Amino acid sequence: MITNWINGKPKEAASGEVFDTINPWSQTSHDTVALSGQEDIDAALDAARDAFDSGPWPQMGFGERGALLHRLADLIMENADELAAADSKDMGKPLSAMLAKDVPRTAQNFRFFADHARLSASEMYPTDSGHHAFSRFEPAGVVAAVAPWNFPLMLESWKIAPALAWGNTVVLKPAEDTPGSATIMARLATEAGFPDGVLNVVHGFGPDSAGEMLTTSDKVDRITFTGESSTGRAIAGAGAANLVPVSLELGGKGANIVFGDADLEEAIKWSNTAIFTNAGQVCLAGSRLYVQREIYDRFVEGFVASAKKLVVGAPNSPDTNIGPLASETHFKKVSGFFDDLPAEATVHCGGPAKDGSWGVHPTIITDAPPDARICREEVFGPVVTIQPFDTEDEAVAAANSSKYGLNAMLFTENLRKAHRVANRLRAGTVWVNCFFVRDLRAPFGGVGWSGIGREGGTFSREFFTEPKAVVIQP
Ligand code: NAD
Q1: N or C, where is the chain less crowded by C-beta within 10 Å?
Q2: Which pLDDT score, from 0 to 100, does residue 124 have?
Q3: What is the DSSP letter of 23?
Q4: Tell me: the pLDDT tens digits for 140-198?
Q5: What's the pLDDT at 402?
Q6: Total domain count for the chain?
Q7: With pLDDT > 90 as the criterion, what percentage of the chain qualifies?
Q8: DSSP assignment, residue 281?
């Protein structure tokens, strides 16, 4: 059974209730999971509160705490196979991607935030009056972290690593579809020597379940959430009710602009990665392509050829590029977009698998009107629409026409144009001639429906601490 992890120990739900976790490749339950109720949430929050108020964690020096975070990173790498298998079984992600990317990046997140906190622990403000003024970044307290299922381990570490590095204690609720890796990570934190209660995990669902119980509790000091924009609204409301700061990393509908002067081969390669990685179940997915008319036909032809090369199949096969979608519910949601396609749309390749699996083949659609559902809503699958454009202004206007604004990409060999367009795009991140290159010091987050707040480096520091000014008379 996948248990909760509370106060340094595995714990079944107080009620004894469980739910199944389904392997989307076999379409069968591969384990049961503790179904937490209010008693379990309170136990986790009380453990986190005790560890914060009475334990050594918030008082430790950055070096000592950082050493434990580095030890956890070591253990994550030593247990890479177990962690990779957990996420792969829970959500169908190819094992090869877990081992090459998600697990090492998770370890790196702990290392980075451990070091960053140590090196940015205070700021000095030389004053004209000679007063000695400086800031202290004090931990906020108990952090509630609620995570999605698309990069379970890695996205959980984006939240937990900075929260812990700054001396907070955490109660994490992973997504109900992907519970496995979180409990393993908490076990490894205990093995690394983290004091009991510093990192707790509770399993369950969202509304009327563990997620809602955790985020509406008046025992939390910060709520950090990644997931759908509609859930973000509910969680923002919960934070407002208790006056608790909330960080929201929400959905996306990434625009990807390919100008006529782009390196065509590079643009096709990155556009492919941007929409088909992780079966398109990526908040940053480049799902709206805008291609300048002079290269439109050549681009579509090359892009379709590149998509057809991707192998959809078993997550544990080394040849697989794209596993099944993460759940039956999600497969039905993505398939629904195909039932709803406007008559004018041309589907060049792809579509839902016809073999009873929950796979969706890489799909490229042209000629859909810009106001069609497929062009406006987040599909969260390997599905991209392409529209031609003539002028730079037209491309920028189309890219900015979405309610979402997480990220955008643009491809051009013209440096001035790259700067000009990057400046005009309404998005939290703009990638020029690349995709998903992340420096953990840089701000990460979205505009509009894509979220509130930023993660990364000092941006995480501002959220997970109570900055204090100290001013001393000379
Ligand atoms: P989701 O909102 O359905 O669920 C996310 C988490 O919230 C789960 O743990 C769920 O149990 C919990 N939850 C649901 N309702 C809740 C409620 N009322 N109160 C408290 N908790 C609740 O999202 P998902 O389907 O797991 O994830 C996919 C979404 O996440 C996509 O929209 C994607 O774009 C977004 N996402 C965003 C980022 C980012 O960095 N901006 C990264 C990854 C995913």
Answers
A1: C
A2: 96
A3: E
A4: 999 999 999 999 999 999 999 999 999 999 999 999 999 999 999 999 999 999 999 99
A5: 98
A6: 2
A7: 100
A8: -
Looking only at Cα atoms, what is the longest distance across the chain? 77
Stretch 272-283: mean pLDDT: 98
- Which atom belonging to ligand 1 lies closest to the Cα atom of 283? 34
Same domain, 109 and 80: yes
Q: What's the CA-to-centroid distance between 219 and ligand 1, angstroms?
A: 22
Distance CA 166, CA 185 (A): 19
What is the domain range of residue 239?
A: 4-250+450-472
The string of pLDDT tens digits covering residues 295-333 is 999 999 999 999 999 999 999 999 999 999 999 999 999
* CATH code, 383: 3.40.309.10
Q: Kind of pairing, strands 18-23 and 465-472?
A: unpaired
Q: Give CA separation, 431 vs 62, 161, 319, in Å.
A: 33, 25, 28
Which pLDDT value is given to residue 23?
97
Mean of pLDDT values over 233-252: 98
* 163 contacts 143 by C-beta, under 8 angstroms: yes
Q: Best mutation site among 102, 226, 229, 460 for ligand 1, i.e. most ligand atoms within 8 A of its Cβ?
A: 226
Q: How far is the CA of 369 from the centre of ligand 1 (A)?
A: 28
Q: How far is the CA of 158 from the centre of ligand 1 (A)?
A: 14
Task: Give the residue numbers marked as catalytic.
Answer: 249, 283
Question: Which residue ranges have their beta carbon within 6 Å of ligand 1?
Answer: 146-150, 155, 173, 175-176, 205-207, 211-212, 215, 226-228, 231, 234-235, 249-252, 283, 378, 380, 406, 446, 450-451
Supply the pLDDT for residue 226. Answer: 98
**249 Cα to the center of ligand 1, angstroms:** 9
The residue assigned the tokens 């000014």 is 469
Domain assignment present for residue 71? The answer is yes
Instruction: Tell me if 335 sits within 8 A of 362, measured CB to CB.
Output: no
Residues 11, 120: one domain? yes
Distance CA 315, CA 361 (A): 14
Residue linked to tokens 């079944």: 12
Return the best residue to mutate from 212, 228, 447 for the ligand 1 pocket (most ligand atoms within 8 A of CB).
Answer: 228
Q: In the structure encoding, which two tokens stand for residue 119, read together?
A: 């090196």
445 falls within a domain: no
Going through 12-140 in order, the beta strands assigned E by DSSP cover 18-23, 28-34, 122-126, 132-139
Mutate to test the pocket of ligand 1, among 146, 151, 213 (most ligand atoms within 8 A of CB): 146
436-474 pLDDT, tens digit each: 999 999 999 999 999 999 999 999 999 999 999 999 999
Q: Are residues 316 and 229 in the same domain?
A: no
